[in-house]
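stage 2 :: seqdesign
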């Protein structure tokens, strides 16, 4: 079995665990993750003394978009609702503009 499939097999054995903690505790942990350039799960692993990825493989923001969301965004940007790549590009541009505007 090649190395990639071996890692996939190991990943399948992992169990995702959710923790109900206060909003303030979540904020502190998420901020620590941002400050350390880690994703929140890796920050939690670091806090717990478990092995973790030192850097996220693909640091990115995610959002789930439904078909109707693409329609709304297409109208907003003057694009074809079926051109999801163009819509994604416009969304990325808007997010970058937002970040620049709100930098400290």
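stage 2 :: out
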């Amino acid at each position: 079995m090649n190395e990639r499939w071996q890692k996939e097999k190991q990943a399948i054995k992992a169990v995702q665990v959710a923790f109900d903690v206060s909003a303030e505790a979540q904020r502190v942990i998420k901020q620590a993750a941002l400050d350390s350039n880690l994703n929140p799960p890796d920050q939690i692993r670091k806090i717990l003394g478990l092995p973790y990825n030192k850097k996220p493989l693909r640091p990115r923001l995610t959002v789930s978009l439904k078909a109707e969301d693409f329609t709304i965004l297409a109208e907003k940007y003057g694009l074809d609702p079926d051109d999801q790549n163009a819509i994604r590009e416009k969304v990325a541009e808007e997010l970058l503009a937002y970040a620049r505007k709100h930098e400290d």
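stage 3 :: structure notes
- Helices lie at 3-13, 23-35, 40-47, 67-77, 84-101.
- The mean pLDDT is 89.
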